Amino acid sequence: ASWILPGKGAGEKGESRLEQALTFTGHTNFVNFVVYVDKAPCFGDDPVIITGAHDKNVLVFNVATSALDAALVGHDDVVKSGCLCPGNRLLTGSWDNSAVVWDLNTGTLAKRVRAHTNNIHCVVAFGDDEGLSASGDRTIARFKLSTGEVLGRYAKHEDTVQAVVSLERSAAFKSAFECANLFASAGNDGNIFVWDADKPKQAPLARFTGHESIIYQLSVNPHTGDLLSAGDDNTLRIWEPTKCAQCLFHPSLVWSSAVYDDEDVLVTACADGAVRVWTRDVGDMASADQVEQLEQTIAATKLAARITLNGANPTSLPTVEEALAEPGSFEGQRTLGRNGDYVEAYAWVQGRWDKIGIVVASGDDDGSGVTKPKKREKVFHNGEWYDYVFDVEISGVPLKLTYNRGQSVFDAAQMFIYDYSEMGISQMDKEQIQQHILNNIDPEDAALVGGAVGAPAGSGGGDANVAFSAYAKELAEMQKAGTADNKGSYRDEFARMEAAGEVPSFSTYAQEEAAAKGGAVPQPAGAGASTTIQEMIAATAADADLFTGFAADGARKRLVEFGVAEADAASMTQQVAADAPATSELVVRILVAIDALQPGQRFPAVDMLRCLAARSIDAFADHAEGVAAVVCEGLKSTAEADAERLVSLRCLHNMFAHAAASRSADAKAVAAVTPLFAPDALAALQIAMRRATSRVASANLKAAGLRVMASMSIAVSRCADLSVASADLEAAAKSLVSYVALGLIIELDNANVRRLVRAALVILCGPNTGAEAPASVHPVRMAAREAAVKEIFGIVRAKKEYGDPDVVAGCKHIYALLSPLAPV
Fold first, then answer.
1. Rounded CA gap, 691 and 705, in Å?
2. pLDDT (tens digit, 9 = 90+) per residue, 207-249?
3. What count of other Cβ atoms lies within 10 Å of the Cβ of residue 112?
4. At residue 745, what are phi and psi to the nearest 5 degrees?
5. pLDDT digits (tens, 9 = 90+) for 610-647
6. Residue 430 · residue 417 · CB < 8 Å
7. Which of 140, 289, 765, 821 has the least CB density, counted as fewest CB within 10 Å?
């Protein structure tokens, strides 16, 4: 039997609405999960409700009184998911990349599990002593609850994994796949995979497709064993082991679903603010008016023309009659058809085509005969909204390419390379990426880019000869003539021309954009080519000048304004301004003050740490984890203009500068920066550096980012002197290479480009100036060189021929260093 809308509520016959009973108040931001616990000894004999939220808190409420009983403290970021586990334990997952096991008998943190390199979006219990976690790193992890041991990682998703669910209670799935230890996963790529938990290195057993966008949650019907998936495409889909059995449409996206354990009743939560209860009992079916009201609400929902239309021109679509002539091939299938001036959307539901909306696909006509740019519905991807999210394939790898109206295609292509560099995407793919954007965005949006095919934004728009390179011009002409079918990609053409002994007439994005905007004509290499590696590496020390100075009175006033006691604020700022080395007691006082301040108000206190770090970081050694946590929290800020991000970058630079100047004998300085090389810290730094190296970065933020690159590169280059895990140093070196690559593409100021080139040389060469034999190259430097071959080799190949003499000299040195490692 299919699910239908019932005519009763959650317990009273004849009622069609659920009535609110109790309200639990305590969180200050979005609540992400609710868990009902019949008995938690540490909180008394009454049942409790445990919740987790965006405010980073896990709260415990008394069910009988709705009073807030306790808070479980252990996460440093958004708490996204939680579930009960055998043994009276609670499992929570957070955007701090960790999962935590809580003992509800004692109310204490029993175990922290770090199995991911990105946010955790979902956790579930698996068996008696295991858990599963789904993450933004595109993997699912299986681990022991009691020990935290990671038992397996499962990788197949192309994007963030939002949901995971155990199929232990599904006899239907276990029988169909002849496997007892099954689980399913789903995420932003719209795929559902079924896995054999005992075989993490093997491909999934099955893949279910049908959702057109993000899948937010998976659940299991304990009575039938069906798998339920809630999605961004406004549907809840019910899956049997071989097919989608039913598709329940909603007026908006569906966040989650659940089926009662003791009754075959389904509940769905929708983004329109409604909770809907569904039943299989025809006798309990809602009235005809209620059913019609829901269907009309769904039909009135307009579907925005997005990338799911694959760039189809509405005039090329079949008529409604033609589109509906053939029956659908699976439940929930969608199709589009023209009906006069409109495009209508239909879905195959229970053996018939149902109209579900009108597609908004044309610009607004104001009667002037001029079509205005299209009003596109934003697409949500990886935590951000975009006008376009393209499904692309580069060298056989399916990926997501994002673009916003009016954005520079240079920046969009480079950000794509930056995001997917670890998957083999490199600068050699730039031309292919840019052409894909220009060929697939709406004509009105392409006009905003300006110029002919390939012209960068702001290039004037009237010069038909403007193009990214000779290749782009040639390809554009061939496309116009209809003879481009056999034209190879940018990467293929480059390799072909080099193999034939021809000089490829390609150039880097920064040079081409400058030329297109009327910038200075690149000059050939000059006398600067004689600059030695030693001279350039030595100059990096000047790039790493400390951030000194401190406005004590201003800091005191801000601290008092944000709630710090006047006496405490005055005492701390006076000690910092005294120009004396930091003491352990002062560092502790500042950390305590920061902990009491709200995000956005911490920058005066963080700036005190920055000032102390300019003198010495020995006092930081005993509190290294706390200092690192504070700095990383500021680095992760995504606000457009945030003082915390700026002072955090400056503090980070001062700390790295001291570590760069120290040797193994200065154990305290090394100990103070060691936590800054941890994966979580590098992830936080990536957020800040991506902002600092963008074209919209303020001068202060850009300067801080450049100094961090200089000081961190020197510190990493002295890898033999640092008592830091080799894997962490290798990750840091690769991150630095990525920052340099992004800067070399985007930065147009020669002085800053010189700093970037010098930082690259320091990372790749270290104190030995690259002269050592390959076998003796330190593993950290070798990891950096291997990353550089993918990310900056193509850039320096072009920059070593033209431009600023010092830049040319540095690029020649880098090119010579990487050439032996580059693929033929």
1. 9
2. 998 888 889 999 999 999 999 999 988 899 999 998 888 888 8
3. 13
4. -80, -45
5. 999 988 888 898 899 999 999 999 888 755 446 888 89
6. yes
7. 289
Average pLDDT, the chain: 77
Max CA separation in the chain (angstroms): 90
Residue 298 CB partners (closer than 8 Å, separation 6+): 234, 249, 250, 251, 356, 357
Q: From residue 220, how far is each of 186, 193, 264, 308, 355 by CA, in Å? A: 13, 14, 12, 28, 29
Closest CA to 650 of 603, 697, 618: 603
Bridge partners (DSSP) of residue 219 are 228
DSSP-derived 3-state class of residue 207: strand
Calculate the CA dihedral of residues 73, 76, 81, 84 and round it to 10 degrees: -30
Written in H, E and C, the secondary structure of 311-378 is CCCHHHCCEHHHHCCCCCCCCCCEEEEEECCEEEEEEEECCEEEEEEEEECCCCECCCCCECCCCCCC
Measured between alpha carbons, how far is 7 from 285 in angstroms, rounded to an integer? 5
Tokens of 401: 């390419």
CB 186 within 8 A of CB 163: yes
Q: Read off the pTM.
A: 0.45
Contacts of 64 (CB under 8 A, 6+ apart): 46, 47
Residues in the chain: 824
Distance CA 628, CA 606 (A): 11
Whether 708 and 652 have beta carbons less than 8 Å apart is answered as yes
Torsion angles phi and psi, residue 173, rounded to 5: -70, -40
Give residue-wise pLDDT tens across range 131-173.
Answer: 999 998 899 999 999 999 999 999 999 888 999 999 999 999 9
Say which amino acid occupies 716. Answer: V
Which residue pairs, CB below 8 angstroms and at least 24 apart, start in 188-192? 188/157, 188/159, 188/160, 188/161, 188/162, 188/214, 188/215, 188/381, 188/382, 188/400, 189/157, 189/158, 189/159, 190/214, 190/215, 190/231, 191/156, 191/157, 191/158, 191/215, 192/218, 192/227, 192/229, 192/239
| Cα distance between residue 246 and residue 816, in whole Å | 61
| Angstrom distance (rounded) from CA 663 to CA 733 | 19
Which two three-digit tokens encode residue 334? Answer: 């969608």
Give the residue among 387, 385, 397, 455 at the shortest CA–CA distance from 426. 397
Scan for tokens 């309990």, then name that residue: 284
Which pair of tokens denotes residue 123?
């956790």
Q: Which of 306, 294, 363 is nearest to 334 (CA)?
A: 306
367 CB contacts (<8 Å, ≥6 apart)?
A: none
Tokens encoding 240: 């049997």
Residue 676 tokens read as 């800054």
Q: Where are the alpha helices (DSSP H) in 82-213?
A: 171-177
Buried b (16+ CB within 10 A) or exposed e, 388-409: bbbebebeeeebbbbbbbebbb
pLDDT above 70 covers a percentage of the chain that reads 73
DSSP state, 222? T
- CA 458 distance to own-chain centroid: 29
**C-alpha–C-alpha distance, residues 7 and 554, integer Å:** 64
Q: Token pair for residue 216? A: 């937010």
pLDDT band at residue 516 under the 50/70/90 scheme: very low
- The bridge status of strand 68-72 relative to strand 79-85 is unpaired
Among candidate residues 136, 49, 139, the one with its CA nearest the CA of residue 90: 49
* Cα–Cα dist 823/452, whole Å: 34
pLDDT per residue as tens digits for the range 66-92:
888 888 988 988 899 999 999 999 999
How many other CB atoms sit within 10 Å of the CB of residue 117? 16
Which two structure tokens, joined as six digits, stand for 134? 């789904």
**Burial class of residue 782, CB neighbours in 10 A (0-12, 13-18, 19+):** middle
Residue 34's pLDDT band (cuts 50, 70, 90): very high
Using alpha carbons, select from 418, 420, 456, 422 the residue that is nearest to residue 437: 456
